[in-house]
Amino acid sequence: MGKPLELHPDRLFPADANCRTVARRLYNEVKGLPIISPHGHTDPSWFAENNNFSDPQALLIAPDHYLLRMLYSQGIRLADLGIPTNSQIHGGEKVADPRSAWRLLAKNIHLFHGTPTGFWLNHVFSDIFEQTEQLDESTADHYFDSISEQLQKDEFRPREIFDRFNIEFLSTTESPIDTLKHHQKLRDSDWNGQVVTSYRPDAVIDAEHHTFQQSLQFFGELTGEDVFSWTAYLEAHRKRRADFIAVGATASDHGHPTAQTANLTTAECQQLFHRIVADQVSPEDAELFRAQMLTEMARMSLDDGLVMQIHPGSFRNHNQWLFDNYGSDKGADIPKRVEYTNALKPLLDCFGNNPDLTLILFTLDESNYARELAPLAGHYPCLRLGPAWWFHDSPEGIMRFREQTTETAGFYNTVGFNDDTRALFSIPARHDMSRRVDCSYLARLVCEHRLEEADALAIAIDLSYNLPKLSYRVSDAMGGDR
Amino acid sequence: MGKPLELHPDRLFPADANCRTVARRLYNEVKGLPIISPHGHTDPSWFAENNNFSDPQALLIAPDHYLLRMLYSQGIRLADLGIPTNSQIHGGEKVADPRSAWRLLAKNIHLFHGTPTGFWLNHVFSDIFEQTEQLDESTADHYFDSISEQLQKDEFRPREIFDRFNIEFLSTTESPIDTLKHHQKLRDSDWNGQVVTSYRPDAVIDAEHHTFQQSLQFFGELTGEDVFSWTAYLEAHRKRRADFIAVGATASDHGHPTAQTANLTTAECQQLFHRIVADQVSPEDAELFRAQMLTEMARMSLDDGLVMQIHPGSFRNHNQWLFDNYGSDKGADIPKRVEYTNALKPLLDCFGNNPDLTLILFTLDESNYARELAPLAGHYPCLRLGPAWWFHDSPEGIMRFREQTTETAGFYNTVGFNDDTRALFSIPARHDMSRRVDCSYLARLVCEHRLEEADALAIAIDLSYNLPKLSYRVSDAMGGDR
Amino acid sequence: MGKPLELHPDRLFPADANCRTVARRLYNEVKGLPIISPHGHTDPSWFAENNNFSDPQALLIAPDHYLLRMLYSQGIRLADLGIPTNSQIHGGEKVADPRSAWRLLAKNIHLFHGTPTGFWLNHVFSDIFEQTEQLDESTADHYFDSISEQLQKDEFRPREIFDRFNIEFLSTTESPIDTLKHHQKLRDSDWNGQVVTSYRPDAVIDAEHHTFQQSLQFFGELTGEDVFSWTAYLEAHRKRRADFIAVGATASDHGHPTAQTANLTTAECQQLFHRIVADQVSPEDAELFRAQMLTEMARMSLDDGLVMQIHPGSFRNHNQWLFDNYGSDKGADIPKRVEYTNALKPLLDCFGNNPDLTLILFTLDESNYARELAPLAGHYPCLRLGPAWWFHDSPEGIMRFREQTTETAGFYNTVGFNDDTRALFSIPARHDMSRRVDCSYLARLVCEHRLEEADALAIAIDLSYNLPKLSYRVSDAMGGDR
Questions:
Q1: C367, B371: Cβ pair inside 8 Å?
Q2: Does the interface predicted TM-score (ipTM) exceed 0.85?
Q3: Fold of A17-49+157-478
């Protein structure tokens, strides 16, 4: 028998009784608002095909790099969690079956005490799969059977789950070399769920990416442009952005190592591009090219209206052995220090004063919240602050974001929450966490007589619903046949 | 009808009932202490001429870059806030009249929810101009008329306001090429208000400043020194420091891009200075010269007793277009990361162990509080920590300062509060915020049994009054005919 | 008469009444657990000789650099605190007698309000020396006499104090050129106290250390190896590590300026070592050699089982004048910014995925907690996070550590507390502070419904006792005749 599993109605609210009461009142007004999810990594084929998920391991372990990284950090092999290795290398290594993997998670569930992953899992277990006992070794098999069974029902298919979660808008992320066939199928279907894409061109911009040359080749084929010339390369981007917009995209996204931007002359761009498409690219050229392309993307955004997002500072695939054996997105990306004040200046010198551009900045380096990001967003008309991101998308992390940005940037230079997840079933848990923590922060301001409760309530609603719609120009995507 | 405007007596105190009670008791003992304002940017002509302010826009919008930056960040043009553009460029652009600008502020007042600007404004509205309804679109005209009317009264003139605010000492900031005529006039007047100056020589030290060569020229004329030779240049500084001291200065102030110091030989100084006064200066030379001049200023301080302040890390006029069109101090300065441990070593190797020097360090990079600044100030006899500065001069910012410096540097290596403002009417609000937050921090220590309440009270009084006087050697300036 | 001195039973617990109640319950279960002190700097001769301490100055002032630095920062000369100067330079300078030094501390005790030093001192005064009045000028002589008298008793000798403090395991730190005679004497004695050593090879690894060449010479003599050849130099390390293990060592420790690691080929290592043992070493070579040696040490750890610790980022002896006149460890070390993500990659590429290696990371740069350290430790099997260190070993510092690491790394990638002290009598105070703050953090999670109290209790016990034993492989040292 496991211990009882109950989600406390006051979870994440302040310990102080008065603050808790205010937080509760604020939260009651926002908890039922529709979910706007303008940035994430769910798979569009889920919604296009609407097939059932197979089992708890495939649904909850395999796609969740938060979960994999914690278990791996304690010496648990990924193969034992049911993650297949690169077959060329580990052809003979045994990959655990789903049930064994699930038992291993259950046995190590204490590792997630005090972590957002623990919170999200319990939310999913209780709220979606109606489990009444905590997951541990004694309940592992019951969980596995019960969830497996439920997953086979119609109401647990992706589209039904989307509707049940009260998601009004959800964006996935695709590369310029994606054919968008899933999104096209969605557009052609009679389902009303707003699942759109975002333009994430890193694969054809980052010359240090190991598949850059092939991606470029395919980029040319898809667009019919000679993408090895600078002018046609830019034209190819314009064409693909239009394709993405045609299936609902309202934003582009840029996951660069740094926030560096550049503003070269056309001649300099052409020379640089010439070196970039050659075989051997220097790190300096690759960095300069990424920098210049952020400025080019901003220029295109002023033409086509895509909101622009920069997600800098992740050292991707830091663990070379793990990458060679298991590939990307297994929890081996590590943040780095990032600089913004100097890095963004070239782009801001071009477009910083234009309120028609929306450029949303993210960080994994919290030391920038108060030092660089809030001052930048609290001045430049084009800039907004994305929410606490990735490792910081947690109760303490979201609270630090508000505490360190609000006084300089206010609430209205922020854009509400992003769940940024490929873990579909955790989406309501993540938005719920964000709403609870924002309400807790606002409640403290109310109790410290720094904000009136009526104003706090208006802000809570804006953060939960209005700001994400406005900032990501979601209404644009809502309309008819755009 | 607007919503009622009331300043809650417990504002900024902790939400916890016990802590709040202690904070109240501490605050009651310090709220009435005179204001020591040893670092700020009010205009000495206000006090020298004692003319009435014209209207709310001129008093509360135009000089307040916190306010301008937030409104600008949301796409509001500065011209629409009544800020004149550079006429050569925008000869024809319409600048809003004061009442229209005021209405625009009123319409957007929600942007300041949860910000220190919102707190300061409400304090001024309620406490000084006795408004009883909140500023919004419905009350904008009433506010404009009411404040305009009050501003014409004698008791709202600068000297009367100064006395009403219970300011014991206030320092403005002037450049070495200022004639000090306003301060001289103040000295010659029969008014007893202690308004003094500070020596801020950046204009004749920063070779990258666009008016450096002209400033140097004028520096020579004012001092009668051939300031294009190193020895005479230093002598010119000594003369002007003496001039500043003669009108009450107790401190110098240095707003450098970095905290870099240097300790060159005389021969190296002469060669460097030779390159500095030439037409084209390299960034490296400019940086090295600023670095060396901090050490020279420290040396002079040991002779003439001026307390030295370093304010590093602001990227001034980051927005080139705004600077070209509207000039400086419009809210477009952005903080940068700053390093202290290595940067200060050359100066500290010279004078760090001399307790006769007082060198007050500020930062816009809070990651230095616990890492570099508290350890440095908690060791070197010459060093003290300036208060939370600029973007961090806010409830959360002041709290972080105490939380991150006290355990290593204690309270007695800090110097109390600086308002650092050109917004005269906000001075009491700013000191009140600081006192409230310090008392809240102390109250928490008391309630966590980390400090006895009697000791907390002594510290609260020291932070509010004694430490600023002592650290800035204010008693020196109080005396008769120095 | 002094003010009463009482240690409040709820000290350091949260101010909120509910959280305090939970914290009390958790603390009651861990307060009596034995002390595991796997990293510190007490003198092994104390335990080997078991002589009485002479007086309060020698016991409490002279070895405590926290105390010295704060007093020095306020202009108090070290000689006046009884610290002898380098006689060649200050042959004639008067060094205060112990009683005068003690009076000077008493007079300035207010400087320690709100600091961990103040907390530790009061704990020692009250709990160990049974003082009932606070230390101040009026009680200074009474304190001096009372403590001096007690120190002469048998029960205040080092071994008796060790047993009274309920210390189960204590590690000192020695250099490879230490003969380990005190530890050998301890092993040969009939006392059962587990006092062991740690291998800290900085003196023979840091080519920039001013005694490097002599240390190397002595390293060769002790090991009988020709340590000026790369192969034999490594062999000398292996021999000495075995010597350390023979007297109980379970860990090595590395106090480098940075966290840089390297992975050179054998040929590159030999060429680098050739340059390192030559007379003039470039800073780049010195850094590269330290970097490579971290990787070599990790390799040896996989053979001999020593847990590895990296303590980077302290600028040792920052104050040149103080170092010249008073030597090291007088409170003049200053933290610097540190980078981990890139710096550790070479070592992690070699051994990062091997759970048989335990590499414990420390920092003086808190901006790394959430950005680099928790993500690294939350992924790599070999990595663990050391506790809040040195300047951050304080109520706020320990709390920030938990708040900024738990959500990404969890509790089980941390290793419990290190007192890291040479102040023997403060050891219980330091562990008590850590346990109280951890319980306060856990209590807040419980009250915010982020953790169940039963789980919090298990974690509190693990943090206080089980994790330090496990992480430092303490049971290995406990055994019989190893």
A1: yes
A2: yes
A3: TIM Barrel (3.20.20)
